[in-house]
Amino acid sequence: MKLMVVDDEPIILNGIIRMIEKANTSFTEIVGASDGIDALHKLATFQPDLILTDIHMPEMDGLALIKEVQAQHYGNRFVIITGYDDFAYARQALRYQVVDYLLKPINKIELVGVLEKVEQTIRIEQRQIREHDLLMLKEHLLYDMPYEDMPLKPEQLHTLLPDPFMTILVFQPNEDTPMMTTERMKQLRNVLSEMQFKAYTFQSRFLRQTVLILNGMHVPSDAELQLACGDLVESENTQNNGLAIGGSGRLMDIDSLRELYMEAVAAMLFNRHFTNCSFNVYRKDAEPIGHELAPVQASNYLIAFEQLEKEMHSLHLHFPDCDHKIRLRELLLSLVGDHNQKVGTMPDVATHSKTTGQLLPFERRPEHSQPHTQAIDKIVSFVEQNYKLDLSLDVVADHVQMHPNYISMLFRKEMDLTFLHYLHTFRLAKAKQFMQDHPDWPINTIAELVGYENPRHFFKVFKKFENTTPGQYRLGSSSI
Fold first, then answer.
1. What is the bridge-based pairing of β-strands 50-54 and 280-282?
2. Looking at CB atoms within 10 Å, which of 106, 245, 258, 420 has the fewest?
3. Is the domain 368-478 a CATH 1.10.10.60 member?
4. What is the pLDDT of residues 284-299, one digit of tens each?
Protein backbone atom coordinates (compact mmCIF):
# COMPACT_ATOMS: atom_id res chain seq x y z
CA MET A 1 0.00 0.00 0.00
CA LYS A 2 1.05 3.62 -0.57
CA LEU A 3 1.43 6.34 2.06
CA MET A 4 2.28 10.05 1.94
CA VAL A 5 3.57 11.84 5.05
CA VAL A 6 3.37 15.67 5.10
CA ASP A 7 5.15 17.77 7.75
CA ASP A 8 7.15 21.00 7.53
CA GLU A 9 9.61 19.90 10.24
CA PRO A 10 12.26 17.63 8.62
CA ILE A 11 13.16 15.88 11.87
CA ILE A 12 9.53 14.91 12.55
CA LEU A 13 8.91 14.00 8.90
CA ASN A 14 11.93 11.70 8.65
CA GLY A 15 11.26 10.26 12.11
CA ILE A 16 7.70 9.25 11.19
CA ILE A 17 8.86 7.64 7.94
CA ARG A 18 11.57 5.65 9.76
CA MET A 19 9.09 4.46 12.41
CA ILE A 20 6.71 3.20 9.73
CA GLU A 21 9.47 1.49 7.75
CA LYS A 22 10.72 -0.35 10.85
CA ALA A 23 7.19 -1.36 11.92
CA ASN A 24 6.81 -3.72 8.94
CA THR A 25 3.29 -2.55 8.03
CA SER A 26 1.53 -3.00 4.68
CA PHE A 27 2.51 0.56 3.74
CA THR A 28 5.66 -0.27 1.81
CA GLU A 29 5.68 2.72 -0.59
CA ILE A 30 6.18 5.91 1.43
CA VAL A 31 6.71 9.44 0.06
CA GLY A 32 7.44 12.49 2.23
CA ALA A 33 6.41 16.10 1.53
CA SER A 34 7.67 19.25 3.28
CA ASP A 35 4.37 21.17 3.15
CA GLY A 36 0.98 21.28 1.43
CA ILE A 37 2.30 22.79 -1.81
CA ASP A 38 5.02 20.15 -2.06
CA ALA A 39 2.43 17.45 -1.36
CA LEU A 40 0.17 18.61 -4.22
CA HIS A 41 3.08 18.56 -6.67
CA LYS A 42 3.97 14.99 -5.69
CA LEU A 43 0.33 13.84 -5.70
CA ALA A 44 0.19 14.51 -9.43
CA THR A 45 2.33 11.39 -9.95
CA PHE A 46 1.96 9.48 -6.66
CA GLN A 47 -1.51 8.24 -5.68
CA PRO A 48 -1.42 7.17 -2.00
CA ASP A 49 -3.94 5.01 -0.18
CA LEU A 50 -3.50 7.24 2.90
CA ILE A 51 -2.21 10.76 3.56
CA LEU A 52 -0.74 11.49 7.00
CA THR A 53 -0.46 15.28 7.41
CA ASP A 54 0.38 17.89 10.02
CA ILE A 55 -2.23 20.62 10.55
CA HIS A 56 -0.05 23.72 11.04
CA MET A 57 2.24 24.29 8.06
CA PRO A 58 3.34 27.41 6.12
CA GLU A 59 1.87 28.27 2.70
CA MET A 60 -0.94 25.71 2.99
CA ASP A 61 -2.12 24.15 6.24
CA GLY A 62 -3.35 20.58 6.67
CA LEU A 63 -7.08 21.29 6.29
CA ALA A 64 -6.52 23.38 3.16
CA LEU A 65 -4.44 20.53 1.76
CA ILE A 66 -7.20 18.01 2.51
CA LYS A 67 -9.82 20.19 0.80
CA GLU A 68 -7.64 20.59 -2.30
CA VAL A 69 -6.79 16.88 -2.43
CA GLN A 70 -10.51 16.06 -2.33
CA ALA A 71 -11.26 18.63 -5.03
CA GLN A 72 -8.53 17.19 -7.28
CA HIS A 73 -9.65 13.65 -6.48
CA TYR A 74 -6.12 12.68 -5.44
CA GLY A 75 -7.27 10.82 -2.33
CA ASN A 76 -10.03 10.46 0.23
CA ARG A 77 -8.37 8.98 3.30
CA PHE A 78 -6.49 11.17 5.80
CA VAL A 79 -4.90 11.02 9.26
CA ILE A 80 -3.88 14.34 10.84
CA ILE A 81 -1.00 15.14 13.21
CA THR A 82 -1.58 17.81 15.83
CA GLY A 83 -0.37 19.20 19.17
CA TYR A 84 -2.44 19.22 22.34
CA ASP A 85 -3.37 22.86 21.80
CA ASP A 86 -4.96 21.92 18.45
CA PHE A 87 -7.21 19.19 19.86
CA ALA A 88 -10.50 21.07 19.35
CA TYR A 89 -9.33 22.09 15.87
CA ALA A 90 -8.52 18.48 15.10
CA ARG A 91 -12.02 17.38 16.05
CA GLN A 92 -13.33 19.80 13.42
CA ALA A 93 -11.18 18.10 10.82
CA LEU A 94 -13.12 14.87 11.23
CA ARG A 95 -15.79 16.48 9.03
CA TYR A 96 -13.36 16.32 6.11
CA GLN A 97 -13.10 12.52 5.86
CA VAL A 98 -10.25 12.43 8.37
CA VAL A 99 -10.29 8.88 9.69
CA ASP A 100 -8.15 9.53 12.78
CA TYR A 101 -5.64 11.88 14.38
CA LEU A 102 -2.31 11.55 16.20
CA LEU A 103 -1.04 13.81 18.97
CA LYS A 104 2.53 15.09 19.10
CA PRO A 105 4.94 13.77 20.15
CA ILE A 106 4.19 10.74 17.99
CA ASN A 107 3.94 7.46 19.89
CA LYS A 108 5.08 4.50 17.78
CA ILE A 109 2.48 2.09 19.20
CA GLU A 110 -0.34 4.56 18.52
CA LEU A 111 1.00 5.27 15.02
CA VAL A 112 1.15 1.58 14.10
CA GLY A 113 -2.30 1.01 15.61
CA VAL A 114 -3.81 3.76 13.45
CA LEU A 115 -2.09 2.42 10.32
CA GLU A 116 -3.32 -1.13 11.00
CA LYS A 117 -6.88 0.13 11.46
CA VAL A 118 -6.70 2.06 8.19
CA GLU A 119 -5.17 -0.96 6.45
CA GLN A 120 -8.12 -3.11 7.51
CA THR A 121 -10.56 -0.50 6.18
CA ILE A 122 -8.70 -0.34 2.86
CA ARG A 123 -8.82 -4.12 2.46
CA ILE A 124 -12.57 -4.12 3.09
CA GLU A 125 -13.03 -1.38 0.48
CA GLN A 126 -10.84 -3.25 -2.01
CA ARG A 127 -12.99 -6.34 -1.54
CA GLN A 128 -16.14 -4.27 -2.08
CA ILE A 129 -14.65 -2.77 -5.25
CA ARG A 130 -13.71 -6.23 -6.53
CA GLU A 131 -17.23 -7.51 -5.81
CA HIS A 132 -18.72 -4.53 -7.63
CA ASP A 133 -16.41 -5.00 -10.60
CA LEU A 134 -17.41 -8.67 -10.75
CA LEU A 135 -21.08 -7.63 -10.70
CA MET A 136 -20.43 -5.37 -13.69
CA LEU A 137 -18.67 -8.24 -15.44
CA LYS A 138 -21.60 -10.53 -14.65
CA GLU A 139 -24.11 -8.08 -16.15
CA HIS A 140 -21.92 -7.72 -19.23
CA LEU A 141 -21.69 -11.48 -19.76
CA LEU A 142 -25.14 -12.69 -18.73
CA TYR A 143 -27.30 -9.70 -19.57
CA ASP A 144 -25.33 -8.22 -22.47
CA MET A 145 -24.63 -4.85 -20.87
CA PRO A 146 -22.44 -3.01 -23.40
CA TYR A 147 -18.79 -2.91 -22.35
CA GLU A 148 -18.62 0.85 -22.93
CA ASP A 149 -21.45 1.34 -20.39
CA MET A 150 -19.57 -0.45 -17.62
CA PRO A 151 -17.91 1.96 -15.15
CA LEU A 152 -14.81 -0.21 -15.46
CA LYS A 153 -11.61 1.07 -16.97
CA PRO A 154 -9.37 -1.39 -18.86
CA GLU A 155 -6.81 -1.23 -16.06
CA GLN A 156 -9.47 -2.25 -13.51
CA LEU A 157 -10.50 -5.21 -15.62
CA HIS A 158 -6.82 -6.06 -15.99
CA THR A 159 -6.53 -6.08 -12.18
CA LEU A 160 -9.27 -8.73 -12.07
CA LEU A 161 -7.96 -10.66 -15.08
CA PRO A 162 -4.22 -9.95 -15.45
CA ASP A 163 -3.13 -13.13 -17.24
CA PRO A 164 -3.26 -13.72 -21.03
CA PHE A 165 -5.75 -16.63 -21.20
CA MET A 166 -9.42 -16.60 -20.24
CA THR A 167 -11.74 -19.57 -19.78
CA ILE A 168 -15.44 -19.52 -18.91
CA LEU A 169 -17.29 -22.59 -17.64
CA VAL A 170 -21.09 -22.70 -17.41
CA PHE A 171 -22.73 -25.18 -15.03
CA GLN A 172 -26.45 -25.84 -15.33
CA PRO A 173 -28.48 -28.53 -13.50
CA ASN A 174 -31.84 -29.92 -14.54
CA GLU A 175 -34.87 -27.72 -13.94
CA ASP A 176 -36.00 -29.44 -10.73
CA THR A 177 -32.50 -29.64 -9.22
CA PRO A 178 -30.96 -27.12 -6.78
CA MET A 179 -28.15 -24.97 -8.10
CA MET A 180 -24.55 -25.28 -6.99
CA THR A 181 -24.06 -24.33 -3.34
CA THR A 182 -21.79 -21.57 -2.09
CA GLU A 183 -19.56 -24.19 -0.48
CA ARG A 184 -19.22 -26.05 -3.80
CA MET A 185 -18.25 -22.85 -5.59
CA LYS A 186 -15.65 -22.12 -2.92
CA GLN A 187 -14.19 -25.63 -3.30
CA LEU A 188 -13.90 -25.13 -7.06
CA ARG A 189 -12.15 -21.78 -6.66
CA ASN A 190 -9.74 -23.22 -4.10
CA VAL A 191 -8.75 -26.17 -6.30
CA LEU A 192 -8.24 -23.93 -9.33
CA SER A 193 -6.29 -21.37 -7.30
CA GLU A 194 -3.88 -24.15 -6.34
CA MET A 195 -3.39 -24.70 -10.10
CA GLN A 196 -2.36 -21.03 -10.44
CA PHE A 197 -5.66 -19.90 -11.97
CA LYS A 198 -7.51 -16.83 -10.75
CA ALA A 199 -11.06 -18.08 -10.30
CA TYR A 200 -14.32 -16.14 -9.86
CA THR A 201 -17.86 -17.49 -9.62
CA PHE A 202 -21.29 -15.94 -9.86
CA GLN A 203 -24.81 -17.24 -10.37
CA SER A 204 -28.04 -16.29 -12.11
CA ARG A 205 -31.16 -17.90 -10.73
CA PHE A 206 -33.11 -16.68 -13.77
CA LEU A 207 -30.85 -18.62 -16.13
CA ARG A 208 -30.15 -21.36 -13.54
CA GLN A 209 -26.48 -21.04 -14.30
CA THR A 210 -23.31 -21.00 -12.24
CA VAL A 211 -20.56 -19.25 -14.20
CA LEU A 212 -16.90 -19.87 -13.40
CA ILE A 213 -14.34 -17.45 -14.83
CA LEU A 214 -10.73 -18.64 -14.99
CA ASN A 215 -7.75 -16.46 -15.78
CA GLY A 216 -4.30 -17.96 -16.19
CA MET A 217 -1.24 -18.48 -18.34
CA HIS A 218 -3.03 -21.13 -20.44
CA VAL A 219 -6.45 -22.65 -21.11
CA PRO A 220 -6.94 -25.48 -18.57
CA SER A 221 -6.20 -28.95 -19.91
CA ASP A 222 -8.43 -32.02 -19.78
CA ALA A 223 -6.55 -33.27 -16.73
CA GLU A 224 -6.86 -29.95 -14.89
CA LEU A 225 -10.60 -29.71 -15.56
CA GLN A 226 -11.09 -33.31 -14.51
CA LEU A 227 -9.20 -32.65 -11.28
CA ALA A 228 -11.20 -29.50 -10.53
CA CYS A 229 -14.65 -30.65 -11.66
CA GLY A 230 -14.43 -34.44 -11.47
CA ASP A 231 -15.69 -34.81 -7.91
CA LEU A 232 -18.48 -32.34 -8.58
CA VAL A 233 -19.60 -34.13 -11.75
CA GLU A 234 -19.46 -37.55 -10.07
CA SER A 235 -21.45 -36.32 -7.06
CA GLU A 236 -24.08 -34.56 -9.13
CA ASN A 237 -24.51 -37.42 -11.58
CA THR A 238 -24.76 -39.93 -8.74
CA GLN A 239 -27.75 -37.96 -7.51
CA ASN A 240 -29.23 -37.95 -11.05
CA ASN A 241 -29.07 -34.20 -11.14
CA GLY A 242 -28.18 -34.13 -14.83
CA LEU A 243 -25.55 -31.43 -14.43
CA ALA A 244 -24.37 -30.05 -17.78
CA ILE A 245 -21.05 -28.22 -18.07
CA GLY A 246 -19.79 -26.27 -21.05
CA GLY A 247 -16.83 -23.99 -21.48
CA SER A 248 -14.75 -21.92 -23.85
CA GLY A 249 -11.17 -20.72 -23.63
CA ARG A 250 -8.84 -18.50 -25.65
CA LEU A 251 -6.39 -15.64 -25.49
CA MET A 252 -7.70 -12.77 -23.39
CA ASP A 253 -9.60 -10.16 -25.39
CA ILE A 254 -11.82 -7.68 -23.55
CA ASP A 255 -13.99 -7.11 -26.60
CA SER A 256 -14.82 -10.81 -26.97
CA LEU A 257 -15.79 -11.71 -23.38
CA ARG A 258 -19.47 -11.94 -24.32
CA GLU A 259 -18.62 -14.17 -27.29
CA LEU A 260 -16.57 -16.39 -24.98
CA TYR A 261 -19.55 -16.78 -22.66
CA MET A 262 -21.90 -17.58 -25.57
CA GLU A 263 -19.48 -20.28 -26.72
CA ALA A 264 -19.56 -21.76 -23.22
CA VAL A 265 -23.38 -21.76 -23.24
CA ALA A 266 -23.39 -23.44 -26.65
CA ALA A 267 -20.92 -26.07 -25.41
CA MET A 268 -23.08 -26.68 -22.34
CA LEU A 269 -26.27 -27.13 -24.42
CA PHE A 270 -24.45 -29.36 -26.89
CA ASN A 271 -22.98 -31.42 -24.08
CA ARG A 272 -26.39 -31.92 -22.47
CA HIS A 273 -28.19 -33.06 -25.60
CA PHE A 274 -25.60 -34.68 -27.88
CA THR A 275 -22.89 -36.31 -25.76
CA ASN A 276 -22.38 -38.33 -22.64
CA CYS A 277 -19.15 -36.60 -21.64
CA SER A 278 -18.73 -34.88 -18.29
CA PHE A 279 -17.83 -31.54 -19.82
CA ASN A 280 -17.01 -29.98 -23.14
CA VAL A 281 -14.84 -26.92 -23.77
CA TYR A 282 -15.21 -25.04 -27.04
CA ARG A 283 -12.04 -23.70 -28.63
CA LYS A 284 -12.07 -21.42 -31.61
CA ASP A 285 -10.09 -22.98 -34.47
CA ALA A 286 -9.32 -26.02 -32.31
CA GLU A 287 -10.70 -29.40 -31.37
CA PRO A 288 -13.11 -29.34 -28.41
CA ILE A 289 -11.62 -30.48 -25.11
CA GLY A 290 -13.47 -33.15 -23.18
CA HIS A 291 -13.91 -36.84 -22.58
CA GLU A 292 -14.57 -39.15 -25.51
CA LEU A 293 -17.51 -37.92 -27.55
CA ALA A 294 -20.30 -40.45 -27.36
CA PRO A 295 -22.02 -41.13 -30.70
CA VAL A 296 -25.68 -40.19 -30.97
CA GLN A 297 -27.75 -42.66 -32.94
CA ALA A 298 -29.57 -41.21 -35.93
CA SER A 299 -32.91 -42.27 -34.45
CA ASN A 300 -32.17 -40.19 -31.34
CA TYR A 301 -30.81 -37.20 -33.22
CA LEU A 302 -34.12 -35.45 -33.85
CA ILE A 303 -35.22 -36.21 -30.29
CA ALA A 304 -32.10 -34.46 -29.05
CA PHE A 305 -32.86 -31.45 -31.24
CA GLU A 306 -36.43 -31.34 -29.93
CA GLN A 307 -35.15 -31.32 -26.36
CA LEU A 308 -32.65 -28.63 -27.27
CA GLU A 309 -35.39 -26.54 -28.87
CA LYS A 310 -37.46 -26.69 -25.67
CA GLU A 311 -34.48 -25.57 -23.64
CA MET A 312 -33.76 -22.73 -26.04
CA HIS A 313 -37.34 -21.56 -25.61
CA SER A 314 -36.69 -21.31 -21.88
CA LEU A 315 -33.67 -19.11 -22.71
CA HIS A 316 -35.49 -16.97 -25.27
CA LEU A 317 -34.77 -13.78 -23.37
CA HIS A 318 -31.21 -14.77 -22.63
CA PHE A 319 -30.14 -13.38 -26.02
CA PRO A 320 -32.81 -10.74 -26.82
CA ASP A 321 -31.08 -9.52 -29.97
CA CYS A 322 -31.54 -11.49 -33.17
CA ASP A 323 -27.78 -11.40 -33.84
CA HIS A 324 -27.12 -13.22 -30.58
CA LYS A 325 -29.69 -15.90 -31.39
CA ILE A 326 -28.15 -16.44 -34.81
CA ARG A 327 -24.66 -16.58 -33.29
CA LEU A 328 -25.73 -19.15 -30.70
CA ARG A 329 -27.29 -21.23 -33.45
CA GLU A 330 -24.06 -21.03 -35.49
CA LEU A 331 -22.01 -22.14 -32.49
CA LEU A 332 -24.30 -25.11 -31.87
CA LEU A 333 -24.22 -26.13 -35.52
CA SER A 334 -20.43 -25.89 -35.48
CA LEU A 335 -20.19 -28.16 -32.46
CA VAL A 336 -22.69 -30.64 -33.89
CA GLY A 337 -20.81 -30.62 -37.20
CA ASP A 338 -17.48 -31.34 -35.47
CA HIS A 339 -19.15 -34.10 -33.49
CA ASN A 340 -20.72 -35.61 -36.61
CA GLN A 341 -17.38 -35.63 -38.41
CA LYS A 342 -15.64 -37.22 -35.44
CA VAL A 343 -18.08 -40.08 -34.69
CA GLY A 344 -19.56 -40.48 -38.18
CA THR A 345 -23.01 -41.63 -37.07
CA MET A 346 -25.21 -38.54 -37.41
CA PRO A 347 -27.17 -37.44 -40.47
CA ASP A 348 -25.69 -34.50 -42.33
CA VAL A 349 -26.02 -31.32 -40.28
CA ALA A 350 -27.42 -29.38 -43.22
CA THR A 351 -30.39 -31.75 -43.25
CA HIS A 352 -31.33 -30.44 -39.85
CA SER A 353 -30.55 -26.77 -40.30
CA LYS A 354 -34.27 -26.19 -40.67
CA THR A 355 -34.79 -27.83 -37.30
CA THR A 356 -32.22 -25.62 -35.60
CA GLY A 357 -33.63 -22.63 -37.42
CA GLN A 358 -36.77 -23.14 -35.38
CA LEU A 359 -34.74 -22.06 -32.37
CA LEU A 360 -34.80 -18.45 -33.56
CA PRO A 361 -38.45 -17.25 -33.53
CA PHE A 362 -38.96 -17.31 -29.74
CA GLU A 363 -42.32 -16.19 -28.41
CA ARG A 364 -42.55 -13.79 -25.53
CA ARG A 365 -43.67 -15.22 -22.21
CA PRO A 366 -47.15 -14.24 -20.94
CA GLU A 367 -45.78 -12.25 -18.01
CA HIS A 368 -43.92 -10.03 -20.48
CA SER A 369 -46.96 -9.26 -22.61
CA GLN A 370 -47.84 -6.10 -20.71
CA PRO A 371 -47.40 -2.84 -22.64
CA HIS A 372 -43.83 -1.60 -22.72
CA THR A 373 -44.71 1.78 -21.19
CA GLN A 374 -46.44 0.13 -18.25
CA ALA A 375 -43.44 -2.13 -17.64
CA ILE A 376 -40.98 0.80 -17.81
CA ASP A 377 -43.15 2.81 -15.39
CA LYS A 378 -43.15 -0.08 -12.94
CA ILE A 379 -39.35 -0.35 -13.03
CA VAL A 380 -38.79 3.42 -12.81
CA SER A 381 -41.16 3.67 -9.85
CA PHE A 382 -39.27 0.95 -8.00
CA VAL A 383 -35.90 2.62 -8.65
CA GLU A 384 -37.15 6.06 -7.56
CA GLN A 385 -38.37 4.61 -4.26
CA ASN A 386 -35.33 2.41 -3.61
CA TYR A 387 -32.33 4.14 -5.23
CA LYS A 388 -30.61 4.32 -1.82
CA LEU A 389 -30.41 0.52 -1.67
CA ASP A 390 -27.80 -1.75 -3.26
CA LEU A 391 -29.66 -2.13 -6.56
CA SER A 392 -28.64 -4.36 -9.43
CA LEU A 393 -30.42 -5.65 -12.51
CA ASP A 394 -31.09 -8.94 -10.69
CA VAL A 395 -32.60 -7.18 -7.66
CA VAL A 396 -34.92 -5.04 -9.80
CA ALA A 397 -35.88 -8.00 -11.99
CA ASP A 398 -36.76 -10.05 -8.92
CA HIS A 399 -39.01 -7.31 -7.55
CA VAL A 400 -40.90 -6.51 -10.75
CA GLN A 401 -41.00 -10.19 -11.82
CA MET A 402 -39.36 -9.65 -15.19
CA HIS A 403 -36.32 -11.28 -16.74
CA PRO A 404 -33.15 -9.14 -16.52
CA ASN A 405 -32.62 -9.42 -20.26
CA TYR A 406 -36.17 -8.27 -20.90
CA ILE A 407 -35.53 -5.19 -18.75
CA SER A 408 -32.31 -4.47 -20.65
CA MET A 409 -34.13 -4.82 -23.96
CA LEU A 410 -36.96 -2.52 -22.80
CA PHE A 411 -34.63 0.28 -21.73
CA ARG A 412 -32.68 0.17 -24.97
CA LYS A 413 -35.81 0.11 -27.09
CA GLU A 414 -38.00 2.57 -25.18
CA MET A 415 -35.46 4.92 -23.56
CA ASP A 416 -32.43 4.50 -25.84
CA LEU A 417 -30.13 3.79 -22.90
CA THR A 418 -29.17 0.90 -20.65
CA PHE A 419 -30.74 0.24 -17.27
CA LEU A 420 -27.44 0.91 -15.53
CA HIS A 421 -27.07 4.25 -17.34
CA TYR A 422 -30.55 5.24 -16.14
CA LEU A 423 -29.79 4.17 -12.55
CA HIS A 424 -26.55 6.17 -12.41
CA THR A 425 -28.18 9.23 -13.98
CA PHE A 426 -31.02 9.21 -11.45
CA ARG A 427 -28.68 8.72 -8.49
CA LEU A 428 -26.31 11.47 -9.62
CA ALA A 429 -29.21 13.90 -10.05
CA LYS A 430 -30.13 13.22 -6.42
CA ALA A 431 -26.50 13.62 -5.34
CA LYS A 432 -26.19 17.00 -7.09
CA GLN A 433 -29.39 18.17 -5.41
CA PHE A 434 -28.02 17.13 -2.01
CA MET A 435 -24.77 19.02 -2.68
CA GLN A 436 -26.68 22.18 -3.56
CA ASP A 437 -29.11 21.94 -0.63
CA HIS A 438 -26.54 20.83 1.96
CA PRO A 439 -23.10 22.30 1.10
CA ASP A 440 -21.69 21.25 4.48
CA TRP A 441 -22.46 17.55 4.10
CA PRO A 442 -19.40 15.33 3.46
CA ILE A 443 -19.21 13.79 -0.02
CA ASN A 444 -19.02 10.31 1.52
CA THR A 445 -22.35 10.86 3.29
CA ILE A 446 -24.02 12.00 0.08
CA ALA A 447 -22.58 9.03 -1.81
CA GLU A 448 -24.10 6.63 0.71
CA LEU A 449 -27.45 8.44 0.66
CA VAL A 450 -27.81 7.90 -3.09
CA GLY A 451 -26.84 4.23 -3.09
CA TYR A 452 -23.05 4.19 -3.42
CA GLU A 453 -21.62 2.35 -0.43
CA ASN A 454 -18.08 2.81 -1.68
CA PRO A 455 -17.06 6.49 -2.03
CA ARG A 456 -14.40 5.69 -4.65
CA HIS A 457 -17.01 4.10 -6.87
CA PHE A 458 -19.17 7.22 -6.47
CA PHE A 459 -16.24 9.48 -7.46
CA LYS A 460 -15.52 7.30 -10.48
CA VAL A 461 -19.13 7.25 -11.72
CA PHE A 462 -19.58 10.98 -11.06
CA LYS A 463 -16.44 11.85 -13.04
CA LYS A 464 -17.52 9.64 -15.96
CA PHE A 465 -21.06 11.02 -16.24
CA GLU A 466 -20.49 14.65 -15.22
CA ASN A 467 -16.93 15.11 -16.54
CA THR A 468 -15.92 16.65 -13.21
CA THR A 469 -15.38 15.50 -9.64
CA PRO A 470 -18.02 15.89 -6.90
CA GLY A 471 -15.81 18.42 -5.11
CA GLN A 472 -15.33 20.52 -8.24
CA TYR A 473 -19.07 20.37 -8.96
CA ARG A 474 -19.85 21.54 -5.42
CA LEU A 475 -17.44 24.48 -5.73
CA GLY A 476 -18.96 25.45 -9.06
CA SER A 477 -22.56 25.23 -7.87
CA SER A 478 -21.82 27.23 -4.70
CA SER A 479 -20.45 30.14 -6.76
CA ILE A 480 -23.59 30.47 -8.88
1. unpaired
2. 106
3. yes
4. 543 333 333 333 344 4
